[in-house]
Amino acid sequence: MTHDLVVTLRPLLAAEASAEAYASGGEPGDLEQAVWLRLLERLESAGPPPDPQGWLRKAVRAEVRRSRRTARLERPYDTEPADDTLPGPEQLALTAARYRALRDAVRRLPGRCPRLIEALLSPKDLTYREIAGELGISQGSLGPERSRCLGCLRRLLTPEVAAREVRG
Question: N or C, which terminus of the chain has less Cβ within 10 Å?
Fold first, then answer.
């Protein structure tokens, strides 16, 4: 019975979908699928319609109206949703975690290293002269002090980096 109904309605549905879909801005195949789904739902709940061709025409027009309403309510994205150029939430979370780990390690450095590294990481983009003035040391000793502090920071971060490696 269902097979006979599908065979009988297929040409009519194809013609109706082709006639209505483009006027509504849709695709005939999408419209056909939606109507076939409606028919399956109808067959499951109420059985076959008494006038299958009339029901099919009404169903096509109802689906067209529904798709027009949906199209009116939809708004385009400002950017492409799958935009690969912007970091995703997981990338932002990982970057923030690395930044926190770096800041925590900098705070554990000895002597004036925390102030020196913070000055180097400052968004103000301080010059060596400004950093030396802020720390109260000569500009000439800033380079060697920076190297020592970076060495200490590297040693502090090595166990954390090693612990995050993928294990087999």
Answer: C
Cα(91)–Cα(89) distance, rounded to whole angstroms? 5
Quote the CA–CA distance of 123 and 14 in Å, as a whole number. Answer: 63
CB 13 within 8 A of CB 60: yes
Q: Which of 111, 110, 116 lies closest to 128, judged by CA?
A: 116
Q: How far apart are the C-alpha atoms of 135 and 131, rounded to whole Å?
A: 6
CA distances to 42, 45, 165 from 161, in Å? 60, 60, 7
Q: For the segment 78-88, what is each residue's pLDDT rounded down to a tens digit?
A: 776 666 677 77
The pTM (predicted TM-score) of the whole model is 0.45
